[in-house]
Automatic annotation (TrEMBL):
GO terms for cellular component: dendrite; endosome membrane; plasma membrane; synapse. Gene3D superfamilies: Rhodopsin 7-helix transmembrane proteins. It is a multi-pass membrane protein. InterPro entries: 5HT4_rcpt, GPCR_Rhodpsn, GPCR_Rhodpsn_7TM. G-protein coupled receptor for 5-hydroxytryptamine (serotonin), a biogenic hormone that functions as a neurotransmitter, a hormone and a mitogen. Ligand binding causes a conformation change that triggers signaling via guanine nucleotide-binding proteins (G proteins) and modulates the activity of downstream effectors. HTR4 is coupled to G(s) G alpha proteins and mediates activation of adenylate cyclase activity. It comes from the Eukaryota. The gene is LOC797212. Belongs to the G-protein coupled receptor 1 family. It comes from Danio rerio (Zebrafish). This is 5-hydroxytryptamine receptor 4.
Length: 353
C-alpha cells in the first residue's frame, strides 16, 4: 500500500508540475470556447424550461413539477459547477483555494445527484400515469409530488455536504495533494455507498419503470388492434371513437419512446463516470486525470441535453419555447392560458406526433 500511495502521489505531482504547460494556448482557447458553448446551452435551455412551466398554465401538471425541479438542478449545474470545473480541466490547476474546492465538490455531487433523482421520479410518475391511471391522481397528488421533490433535494444534500465538508469521504486515504489541485479522492466505502445511492438505485428504478411502461404500451396496442378489428365492420359513427383510440395509443407509445431515449442518454453519459468512481479506490487511485475529466464532462452533458430532449419530443414545450424566444409572451396578455398543443403551423403534423 505504501508503494502504491507513493506512486499515486508522484503521478499527481507530475500532473501538478505540468499544469501550466499541459496544453498550448490555441488548444486552451478552443477548449474554453467549446465548454463555454456547452455551459450556455445548459443555462439557457434549463432556464427556458423553468420559465415555460412557470408561465404557461397548461404545463403546470404533476409530471412537469418534477421537470421544473430537474431544470432548476441542471440550471445550477451549469451556473455554479461547470464554470469552475472548466477552469480546472483546461488549466490543469485549481486557482480558487482549498475551502472553495470542498464547497465546489459538495455542490457538484449534490446537484448532479439531484438531477439523477429527478429523472427517476419522472420515470416513476410516468409508470403510474400509464400503468395505473385509475390511481394516478391519488398516488401523484400535489402533496406527494412536493414530498418527492423534497426527497430529490434532501438525500443529495445529505450524501454530499455532510461527508465532504467533514472529510468523511476520504478517511483512510493518506495521499497528500498540492494546494493548487482540487482532486476528489474518496475512500472505498464512500465510493460504493454514494454511487449506489446517487446512480445505481435510481438507474434500477428507471429501468423497471420503463420496462413496465413498455409492456403496458404493448398490451394496450394489442387491445386497440383487436378492438379496431371488431369495429372495422361498424357504421361511420364509430369512426371518431376509433380515431380517439388510435390517438390514445399513439400518445402512450410516444411517452414510452421519449422516456426510453431520455433514459438511454442518461445511462450513456453517467454510467462511465460512476463505474470508474467505484473502481478507482480499489485500484489505488490509478485512473488518469484525463479519463476523470472526460467521464465527468460526459455527465455534465446530460444536464445540457435534458431541456432539448423535452423540447424536441413535447409539442407543448416546443411551442412554449418558440413563444418565449420570440417574445410573444410579452406581446400577448392571453398567452399564459392559451392552448399550446394547437396552432396553424403545426396543424398538419398533429396526426404524426
Amino acid at each position: 500500500m505504501e508503494n502504491t500511495s507513493e506512486w499515486s502521489n508522484n503521478s499527481l505531482d507530475s500532473d501538478f508540475e505540468a499544469c501550466a504547460t499541459l496544453r498550448s494556448f490555441g488548444s486552451r482557447v478552443a477548449l474554453y470556447l467549446f465548454i463555454i458553448t456547452g455551459i450556455l446551452c445548459t443555462v439557457v435551455g434549463n432556464f427556458l424550461v423553468v420559465l415555460a412551466i412557470a408561465y404557461f398554465k397548461q404545463l403546470q401538471c404533476p409530471t412537469n413539477s418534477f421537470v421544473m425541479s430537474l431544470a432548476v438542478a441542471d440550471f445550477l449545474v451549469g451556473l455554479v459547477v461547470m464554470p469552475y470545473s472548466m477552469v480546472r480541466t483546461v488549466e490543469g490547476c485549481w486557482y480558487f483555494g482549498p475551502t472553495f474546492c470542498h464547497l465546489h465538490s459538495s455542490l457538484d455531487v449534490m446537484l448532479c445527484t439531484a438531477s439523477i433523482f429527478h429523472l427517476s421520479c419522472i420515470a416513476f410518475d410516468r409508470y403510474y400515469a400509464v400503468c395505473n391511471p385509475l390511481v394516478y391522481s391519488f398516488k401523484m397528488s400535489r402533496k406527494r409530488v412536493g414530498l418527492l421533490i423534497v426527497v430529490c433535494w434532501a438525500i443529495p444534500f445529505l450524501i454530499s455536504f455532510g461527508p465532504i465538508l467533514f472529510g468523511l469521504h476520504k478517511l483512510g486515504v493518506d495521499i497528500p495533494l498540492p494546494e493548487n489541485m482540487c482532486v476528489f479522492l474518496v475512500n472505498r466505502i464512500y465510493a460504493v455507498m454514494a454511487s449506489l445511492v446517487a446512480f445505481y438505485l435510481p438507474m434500477v428504478t428507471m429501468l423497471v419503470a420503463y420496462w413496465k411502461i413498455y409492456k403496458a404500451a404493448k398490451r394496450q396496442a394489442m387491445q386497440i388492434s383487436a378492438m379496431e378489428a371488431q369495429m372495422a365492420a361498424g357504421v361511420g359513427k364509430d369512426s371518431s371513437k376509433k380515431q380517439k383510440h388510435r390517438n390514445s395509443i399513439r400518445r402512450e407509445r410516444k411517452a414510452a419512446k421519449t422516456l426510453g431515449i431520455i433514459m438511454g442518454v442518461f445511462l450513456l453519459f453517467w454510467l462511465p463516470f460512476f463505474t470508474v468512481n467505484i473502481i478507482d479506490p480499489f485500484i489505488e487511485y490509478g485512473t488518469a486525470v484525463v479519463i476523470w475529466d472526460v467521464f465527468l464532462w460526459l455527465g455534465y452533458i446530460n444536464s445540457s441535453l435534458n431541456p432539448f430532449l423535452y423540447g424536441f419530443f413535447n409539442r407543448s414545450f416546443r411551442r412554449a419555447f418558440l413563444m418565449i424566444m420570440g417574445c410573444r409572451i410579452c406581446l400577448h396578455g392571453s398567452a399564459q392560458g392559451m392552448d399550446l398543443s394547437h396552432s396553424k403551423r403545426d396543424g398538419n403534423e398533429r396526426t404524426d406526433n
